[in-house]
Amino acid sequence: TMPRLSVFGSVNVDHAFAVDAFPRPGETVGGDSAYARLAGGKGANQACAAARAGVEVEVHFWGRVGRDDDFSVAQLERAGVIAREVTRDDALPTGSACVLCERASGENMIVVCAGANDAARARFREGDESAVLALQGEVPVSANLDAVRMMRTVNPRCVVVLNYAPATEISLELIEEVDCVVVNESEARAISEAYEILDEPTRASDRPQRNRAIVYTMGAAGARLVMTRDLTFREAFVRDGDGNSQDEARVEAMRFGDDETVIDTVGAGDAFVGAFCAAMASDATCADALRLASAAGGLTCLSSGARADVSRARERALPIPCVLRGALKNENVERAPLRALLLDDAL
Fold first, then answer.
1. Quick one: signal sequence residues (predicted)?
2. What CATH number does residue 256 fall under?
3. Measured distance CA(144)–CA(185) in Å, rounded
4. Among 20, 125, 157, 301, which residue carries the largest CB count within 10 Å?
């Protein structure tokens, strides 16, 4: 049987507008005819990217939508995601987002309304054992904590990946429960500041100590994966501001061809995380997981909307440089599955 990746998170309907320039306060700008209604939400986006990235993995999605929303569920299933655990809310509408894309720069501005995502819950039980569980920050912290603890009861050797985006409500308790945190530079700064505010170290989780990882996504500069090893997450986040960790992997961003143009960056981070988690669930090495993630993120920039075609990610990943340092450069470690490293089996 194929390894399973479970994704618990948000489902949104995105209302996307392309504009020549972002409106200033008090200004109205025309979106011409460039409007699209698209399926979105970080959780659902990541599940779709994972299912489309060309990796042999079964992707299950857990989330909540409004009562009449067949559109979002159909889009998940069309991507190859198993969405039978998506529940429907009689009172709340499906989450929604207004996305403005500036044509010239490809940059975006987004406003999100949580809707039914605020009532999302994952109820893992026997039979739901997963190699990897992926979480994001668009559902309540309490729901994410419950999801981690339920999955650990079902499968103590599940690797939990938290993409802390958006980092609006930082829960250090949640961070301490997971094995890998994926953040961009502003999210990493918010977590580091939250740790620095504490007068005393956070209580370590009761579960056995494992190697853990932080992945910093840096847009056009690629990404870095840092193994914490003997450091706590607190020490790793606070100390790593200089970017000089000893045990790390650095992957470059996918290089675009002369005939390729960046259309917009919406969903690039979600594609990165989805492909990364799928690769990890399939027991890819650290370098191969990062290369696939980088390729998926890059491919997403070549078309509008959060869910681009990332089916060529494996092919585009092959030439992407990834440099290993410290313990990750050890020959045996280099060949070991990243998931095994995080389960402390190989480092």
1. none
2. 3.40.1190.20
3. 22
4. 301
Render pLDDT for 121-154 as a digit per residue (tens, 0 to 9). Answer: 999 999 999 999 999 999 999 999 999 999 999 9
- 161 closest CA partner among 51, 265, 50: 50
Between CA 72 and CA 82, with CA 76 as vertex, the angle to 5 degrees is 130
Average pLDDT over every residue of 46-55: 96
Check whether the bond before 166 is cis (ω within 30° of 0): yes
- Which range marks the domain in which residue 280 is found? 4-342
Per the model's pLDDT, the better-predicted residue between 307 and 222 turns out to be 222
Query: Is the residue at 309 inside a domain?
Result: yes
Structural domains of the chain, count: 1
pLDDT of residue 241 exceeding 60, the answer is no
What is the predicted pLDDT for the residue at 16? 86
pLDDT at 203 over 70: no
Of residues 228 and 179, the one with the higher pLDDT is 179
Residue 225 lies in a domain: yes
More confident residue, 210 or 163: 163
* Whether residue 207 has pLDDT greater than 60: no
- Does residue 234 form part of some domain? yes
* Mean pLDDT for the chain overall: 89
Cα 329 from Cα 31, distance rounded (Å): 50
